[in-house]
Amino acid sequence: MEKPPVEEEELYSSWALLILTSLIILSLFSSYYLQRKQIRALHETVISIFAGMLVGLIIRMSPGSMIQDMVTFNYTYFFNLLLPPIILNTGYEMKKGNFFKNLGTILTFAFLGTFISALVIGILVGIISAMGIGSMSLSFLDSMIFGSVLSATDPVTVLTIFQSLKVDPKLYSIVFGESILNDVVSIVLYETLKKYRGQDFHFSNITHGIFIFFLNFGTSLIIGVIIGVSCALISFNYYNIFDFISFANIKP
């Protein structure tokens, strides 16, 4: 494929940047307007979703593919750059007492609920693909990978309504805690299933996949706990280290 001229590529990249920036500004403005007018029947995420769908439809129907390639979602950026700060922020603002008090219920919904959701979605997608409905043709493994992606839910709107209505803190902590952990379970499940693409299906693959799932999850959990505890100890014991550094740098 012939590479487009530099001027044309720069023009399309400017349009792509303008579209993304406009969507971000629209999302921020809608959030500010709804909070200012105290409109609770409509959430800003609904406006953002429909705005993204409308802009995506216009780009999809427009001629050419260069601008489509520039605004295409890259999941590696999401997993490595966007998702970790989101999980860190939600974990930092979480009320620890209610979380650990209902830890058993949260883990049940996060692990078992996410797995059942991925399994049901994967089976339904596989059945639809096997029936030849539409132009979709996916293998069972690809259907399960698709189900693992959609299994994690993000109840931002529900939590906002819960907070405004001041519901039972136990219910809020369960939904909030499950929404934090199901992302992790979904990511590990997705990465585990992706390793078996292009391979023949055997029963040993299931047991090996389960082992890899718990190995990846356990290793990530241990690394996170070690780093978190280390940072907490450092900040607790050496909170005034910058005062010592500033004092040492003072010239007589």
TrEMBL record:
Compartmental location: Membrane
Key word Transmembrane present: yes
Membrane topology: Multi-pass membrane protein
Protein name, per record: Cation/H+ exchanger transmembrane domain-containing protein
One Gene Ontology MF term: potassium:proton antiporter activity
Superkingdom of origin organism: Eukaryota
Annotated organism of origin: Rhizophagus irregularis (strain DAOM 181602 / DAOM 197198 / MUCL 43194) (Arbuscular mycorrhizal fungus)
GO biological process, one term: vacuolar acidification
